Amino acid sequence: EPTVRTELMEQIPPIAIFLQESRPKFPTAFFEYLMPIVVRYLTDVNNQVRKAGQEALLILLEQDLVAQSDIENKVCPILLDLSAPDSDDEYKVEAVNIICKMASMLSRTTVEHMLLPRFCELCSDGKLFQVRKICAANFGDICNAVGQEATERLLIPKFFELCSDSVWGMRKACAECFMAVSYTTSPEVRRSKLSPVFISLISDTCRWVRQAAFQSLGPFISTFANPSSAGLYIREDGTLSIRPPAQDVNANSCQPSHNITGMSSNANAA
User: Fold this and answer.
1) Domain-located, residue 157
2) Is the pLDDT of residue 23 over 90?
3) Is 208 a member of any domain?
4) What integer is the mean pLDDT of 7-15?
């Protein structure tokens, strides 16, 4: 029964945490018995079971409970198969979504070598606009996961494609994550390549795209500032924050730094 499999998936993370805490007693139980179940349920015929499996996998990755070898040899191959060009539409949408969500939890090497090529292909998926939309909405997170070199070499051309996509929702998603993409690039790329594209979004024919671009204008401009003098920095959650001046830190040690809300690519994607 699908409901039984779904309930089982919801119990996997707490069981895995218990096994991790009791590793001397159960050194290989998770890797031998539980991880294969999680991987198998990623391709379950039932939609709810698959979603439960995906949620369980993300929790396990977030808790750092999945071995690197299992990620590279078991999880990534399944996701690459599900997101292949000839894959079922529903499976493909789910696969690209989980690829984007897990990118920030994996090592840069794993993301760049195993997932980045497929992500670039999915950005140009001409069959499903839902796939391109997911890629656009999570673009900043992928850039942050792979770093400046891979972003400028492989991702920026794909980002420009999405910024000129015929579907306005794609362009709007790009405008919303523009700051996160810009922050990962060099000052020269921001000035010579990203700025003209951003101007085109501000002048877009769709008012929803223009509105999103104007909301991202301040955050985008902030990426041109020198962090040491402007006091601006990007937190781990992707938000733009202001670090108080050094002379004020001791005097206001109980005061938290002012966080500029609405700057996160995740929040904008939501």
Assistant:
1) no
2) no
3) no
4) 93
Closest to 152 measured CA to CA, from 112, 114, 115: 112
Residues 20, 18: Cα–Cα separation, whole Å? 5
pTM above the 0.85 mark? no
Residue 207 lies in a domain: no
Range of the domain at 42: 1-66
Write out the DSSP string of 7-63. Answer: HHHHHHHHHHHHHHHTTTTSSSHIIIIIHHHHHHHTT-SSHHHHHHHHHHHHHHHHT
Q: What is the pLDDT of residues 153-184, one digit of tens each?
A: 999 999 999 999 999 999 999 999 999 999 99
Burial of 66 per CB tally in 10 Å (0-12, 13-18, 19+): buried
Q: Give dist(CA 68, CA 167) in Å, integer.
A: 38
Indicate the number of domains in the chain.
1
Report the half-sphere exposure of 212 (CA within 13 A, side-chain side): 26
Cα–Cα dist 217/220, whole Å: 5
3-class secondary-structure state, position 226: coil
Nearest to 139 by CA among 95, 110, 87, 100: 100
Q: How far apart are CA 248 and CA 258, in angstroms?
A: 13
